[in-house]
Amino acid sequence: MSSPSTADSKIVLITGASSGIGEATARRLAADGHHVVLGARRVDRLEALAGEIRTAGGRADHGELDVTSLDSVRAFVETAHERHGRIDVLVNNAGVMPLSTIDALRIDEWNQMIDVNLRGTLHGIAAVLPHMRARGAGHIVNVASTSAHRVDPTAAVYCATKYAVRALSEGLRQESRDIRVTVVSPGFTRSELTDRGGDPETQAVARAAMEQLAIPASAVADAIGYAIGQAGDVDVNELVVRPIAQG
Q: Which of 27, 54, 94, 156 gets the most CB atoms within 10 Å of its CB?
């Protein structure tokens, strides 16, 4: 794919950029000629990724980011805005997926999914929307999941947060006439989502399914790149990207 001209190059903020879909999206968009601003809690990984992107000829900077904190998200966004003068795209990607049945009552993990997956997405929107409204242009990409389209046992709370992200995205789209809104719903994708928390047996089953079925994170990054790369008056609202073998 040819890189955009300097005039078409965008300032793209990416949350959860230290691994998985966020990292792959940073590499893809930087290769497309955009300037990526990477946010996550693991700053050492961000620093290494930004260095690799710059070594490859791309443009990247990074900052520590905790999407569960509105102050942290606002600071991340304001720093990017002051440095670059505008924010063209926000990719709301940060997410967690500790799976368990509801009767396991892993309430702290329920709250973590609500805080990261849903509240974190809202915080991102709240931080960039005033800037985009003032410019009369912008693009918000929310990463949901195929779990925003179906509910599976052991994933009820995770699905609930992703259904909410999808509903939120559609509401924002309907309210917007100058801002593009895209929700991307990946199926089984190689990432670290199954490595943290959740019921150990349930997470092991999810990891086994991921190893057998998963597509690379770059496939989802390609979908995000496609949506971002459309003409300014074209809004790609919803993309579902799953392995062929996934039921």
A: 94
- Is residue 158 flagged as an active site residue? yes
71, two tokens: 């102050």
Nearest alpha carbon to residue 164 among 225, 232, 104, 92: 92
Residue that is written with structure tokens 């965008």 in the block? 10
* Joined tokens for residue 82: 């002051």
**Which residues touch 120 (CB under 8 Å, ≥6 apart)?**
15, 67, 68, 73, 92, 94, 95
The model's confidence at residue 102, banded by pLDDT at 50, 70 and 90, is very high
Judged by phi (left if over 0) then psi (alpha if -120 to 50, else beta), residue 170 lies in alpha
The helix (H) or strand (E) run that includes residue 84 is: helix 70-84
pTM of full prediction above 0.90:
yes
What mean pLDDT is predicted for residues 160-183? Answer: 98
Share of the chain above pLDDT 70, in %: 96
Q: Report the amino acid identity of residue 209.
A: A
Candidates 76, 110, 158, 188; catalytic one:
158
